Amino acid sequence: MTDKILPLLGRRSVRAYLPDAAVSEAELRALLEAAMAAPSAMARDPWRFLVLRERADLAALADLLPHGQMLRQAALGIVVCGDPAQAHRQEISYLLQDCSAAVENLLIAAHLLGLGAVWLGVHPNEDRVTGIRRQFGVPETILPVAAIAVGRPAEAPEPRTRFNPDFVHAGRW
């Protein structure tokens, strides 16, 4: 393992946050800039972002996501959505790939900024998609894909790799 990727291996899902520790507007801007720097099929950039800071909104989002209870303590929540009309060929598969790349960039940026974050699945769970649309006024034409809880970490998971050589096939399967 090369030392150059050690910072990346330190990016872990953080589910515990310090109370009353805000994420600044500059940090939020940096997270969103990193997300929007992700690759996108044909540079269509179908991603859209719903940023939630209010305690009531974070609690409402936590109510919609069975594994999202950490949102109640997070400084902010970001719902990553996609606009199918903007996706390459208007294909949902491209939209999901583009939004997933944006999520990963955001998670890495959070780690590099000293923040903690965790990716929470929304799509393809129709109850979660519908619930987010209803709760936050997301248009029917926009697809909620994932949510991210972000805050000042109250835990520090050890860096790790999940490399498994059995998953690698050289030349042919």
Overall mean pLDDT stands at 96
Structural category: alpha+beta
Number of domains: 1
What can be said about the biggest beta sheet? 4 strands, antiparallel
Note the total helix count: 5
Secondary-structure element order, N to C: HHEHEHEHE
What does this structure look like?
There is one protein chain. The chain has a four-stranded antiparallel beta sheet with strand order 1-2-4-3, with helices on both faces. The protein starts with 5 loop residues before the first helix and ends in a 22-residue tail after the last strand. The radius of gyration is 17 Å and the shape is globular. Helix content is 34%, strand content 16%. The protein has one domain (18-153): NADH Oxidase. The mean pLDDT is 96. It is an alpha+beta fold. It has helices at residues 6-9, 25-36, 55-64, 92-112, 126-136, and strands at 47-52, 76-82, 116-121, 143-151. The longest helix is centred in the middle third of the chain and has 21 residues, at 92-112.
Please tag this protein with its features.
173 residues, NADH Oxidase, four-stranded antiparallel sheet, 5 helices, 4 strands, globular
